[in-house]
Design goal:
196 residues; alpha+beta; Alpha-D-Glucose-1,6-Bisphosphate, Chain A, domain 4; seven-stranded antiparallel β-sheet; 29% helix
């Protein structure tokens, strides 16, 4: 098999590959850390400059506002954050994420610290798309809790990362282009306003 570096140039995201085994091999080769054997990935074009999108994303405390299953993200320091994420069955999973590679305005890569409830690693890349804005690509490797059964249960409850990354990037696009995320469900802020 040819080396990843020898493959013909293709700017399409790995997640669009029809050969899922090849996509996982490529994602694993591109990942800074190999934490996980399941692959999730998606790309979206957002009509905003890459520097602006990168800056917003890099403040990890912002991400809970567009990531549906994220309960909270505690920023510990410049490279570490603690994630609390909803899982099927009303439970949560937690891990510390460590930034493993960063290129200002272009890329943020991370890996979960040892002892994570869900081992994971990945990257979010911001590529200039000219007048169209920026192509934002998220690539994630993860080990689902309870293996294949856990992955099927997560999919059933719409908490499977491949479903979530697509939805979360769509919400990110909405927020960056319109200033709000359209939803028919009440968010935490709306519940607080209602109770006041």
């Amino acid at each position: 098999m040819p080396d990843i570096a020898d493959r013909p140039y293709d700017d399409a995201p790995v997640s669009t590959s029809k050969d899922k085994d090849a996509a996982v091999r490529i994602a694993t080769a591109e990942a800074v850390e190999d934490r996980g054997n399941s692959f999730a990935g998606w790309a979206v074009t957002i009509s905003r400059p890459s520097a602006e999108l990168y800056t917003w994303w890099r403040d990890f405390s912002n991400l809970a506002s567009v990531m549906e299953n994220v309960e909270r993200i505690d920023v510990l320091d410049d490279t570490r954050s603690h994630w609390v994420v909803k899982a099927p069955g009303g439970t949560t999973v937690e891990w510390d994420a460590i930034v493993t590679e960063e290129r200002e305005g272009e890329l943020i890569a991370w890996a979960s610290a040892e002892g994570a409830d869900i081992a994971n690693s990945g990257r979010v890349a911001f590529r200039d798309a000219g007048a169209r804005g920026t192509v934002v690509t998220a690539t994630i490797l993860y080990d689902p809790p309870a293996g294949v059964i856990g992955k099927l249960v997560a999919k059933l409850f719409q908490r499977e990362p491949n479903i979530q990354v697509r939805r979360d990037l769509a919400r990110f696009k909405q927020l960056m282009e319109t200033g709000e995320v359209a939803t028919n469900a009440m968010n935490r802020k709306q519940f607080e306003e209602q109770d006041a």
